[in-house]
Amino acid sequence: MDLLKLEFSWLDAIDLLIVIVLVIQLYRLLKGSLAFNIFLGLCVIYAIYFLVKALHMTILTSILQNIINVGIIAIIVIFQPEIRKFLLVLGKKTPLSKDSFFTKLFLPDKFKSYKEEEAIINEITLAATHLAQKRTGALIVIANTYRVKFDTASSINIDANISAKLIESIFSKESPLHDGGLIIVGNKMLAAKVILPVSENPNLPTRIGLRHRSAVGITEHSDNLAIIVSEERGTISVAQDGVLSMDISPEELKVKLYEVMVDGIS
Ligand SMILES: Nc1ncnc2c1ncn2[C@@H]1O[C@H](COP(=O)(O)OP(=O)(O)OP(=O)(O)O)[C@@H](O)[C@H]1O
Question: What are the φ and ψ backbone dihedral angles of 146, each rounded to 5 degrees?
Answer without folding.
Answer: -70, -15
